[in-house]
Amino acid sequence: MKKTLTVLLLVSALALCGLSVVQWLREAELRAEIQSLTLQLQAETQLRIETQEKAAAFELEIARLTQLRADTEAKLLAVTEELTLTQTDQLQRGVSIALLANEYAQARSQAQLAEQRLAETTAAIANRNEDVTGQNTAITTANERLKKLTAERDTAIAELNARTKAFNDLVTKYNKLVK
Fold this sequence. Notes:
Elements: H1 2-109, H2 114-178
Helix pairs in contact: 1-2
């Protein structure tokens, strides 16, 4: 009977050793899985932080481009207003030139004052022509500025569109990663 109990005790001890080995192997696998998940979580967290930083940088760039666009539009409105005022002034000066031409015709019909009025009218027309030439120069300059501002606006909008597309692509990639 002693021998049976000893054998039974030995079998029980070996069974407990086997159980311990099985548990130890299972725990090792679980620790390895936990380590793998921890590394994956750290990588995803780092990627999320980088993506958030890029998104913040893109938001700042979009704000800067929006401000640039607003400034460009304000300049465009100012130049357009100046051009309108210049055109109105030119139209008024054109009416003034027409009135002076009418006065010149009346002065010609009056024989007594013909020479005096002729000299005055010629000088006035020359002054008006200089004014009109100056206005034409101002209009040309305003037109060139308007073309330049329009080109700058188009460039800024193209850059904004490109950055917005890149941002949208980045957000799409981020959304795929998050899902």
